[in-house]
Amino acid sequence: MLWLVITIVAYLIMAVVFLVDKHLLVSVIPNPKVYAFLIGLAGFFLVLIVPFIDFYVPSVLQLLLSFGSGASFVLALFFFYKTLQKSNISQVVPFVGALTPVFTFLLVYISSFGKETLSFPKIVSFAILIIGSILITLEKDKKINLNGLKILILSALFFSLHFVMAKYVYLDQPFLNGLVWIKLGGAFLALFLFIIWPDIKNDLFTKKDTIKKNSLALVAVNQLSSAGAGILQQWAIALAPLAYIAFINALQGVQYVFLLALSIFLSFKFPHILNEFISKKIIIQRVVAILFIVLGLALLATQ
């Protein structure tokens, strides 16, 4: 299962990217609209590979799916960053990661008219991964507020739409051709948001301190890393069977293991970089959650 290995590598990279994102949203780019806009706009750079691939314009339906997938990704990022800015990263990321595979599973089932589903053993491992992902987010004394909860649900829904539409794109188009059109869809939506949200233009061109010069390198490196992880994730989507797309979402549990370890380290050693309260009780709870995730992963790999 090459798609499984590629997915795990992608999520390990994304764990570091999310930690840097949290720092950037707090101290460098305080407007989540601006951050989502910059990431979406970066999709235009992918046209640089067009001369080197067998590029073509697909059917109207495929264009709609490609643009819809790219646009959904940018919208998901906006809602995700909006909550990430004000909440614990070790809560926000797993919460979205727990909901996304559920939405993805339902969307695949509905869009395939019930033809694409999982065997019972796979459903068991899928459920264990989801339980672990949910358990790792729970904190009795610190909960995401109702408004933040609604925003995260929207984020998970749009991420699911992105994944499912992307898979249908790759079923019809070669990987690189489909990837270019998906990223163009995200870039065009970013331009549209630039027009309808004046504060993006204001933050980019009016506020002098929106992105400090000494932070540009960090932003650039982090986005290159994010792009690399994103391409690996898209490759995994292209390789995996349609019914297994929800598993790619559920496998974010691997990312949480790495994310939890980094969060604990940075919170204690560098609180000015990542200030998150993590008690012994929370650590024990999340270790138990990680055991669920590892068990679910093991069942998936051995079935």
Provide a descriptive summary of the structure in words:
- The chain has 303 residues and is mainly alpha-helical.
- The chain has one domain (2-302).
- The chain contains twelve helices and no strands.
- Helix 11 runs antiparallel to helix 12 (280-302).
- The chain is globular.
- The chain starts with a helix and ends with a helix.
- The relative contact order is 0.21.
- The mean pLDDT is 80.
Count of separate DSSP helical elements: 12
What distance separates the N and C termini? 11 Å
By helix and strand content, what is the structural category?
mainly alpha
Helix fraction bin: over 70%
* Morphology call: globular
Question: pLDDT average, as an integer?
Answer: 80
SSE order: HHHHHHHHHHHH
What are the low-pLDDT stretches, counting only 5+ consecutive residues below 50?
A: none
Name the beta content range. under 5%
C-alpha Rg, in Å? 19 Å
How many domains is the backbone divided into? 1
Give a short account of the largest sheet: none
* DSSP strand count: 0
Features:
303 residues, 76% helix, mainly alpha, 12 helices
Short description:
76% of the residues lie in helices and 0% in strands. The chain is mainly alpha-helical. It has one domain.
Q: How do the strands and helices of this protein lay out in sequence?
A:
Elements: H1 2-27, H2 32-41, H3 60-84, H4 89-111, H5 120-135, H6 146-172, H7 175-196, H8 198-205, H9 213-239, H10 245-250, H11 252-269, H12 280-302
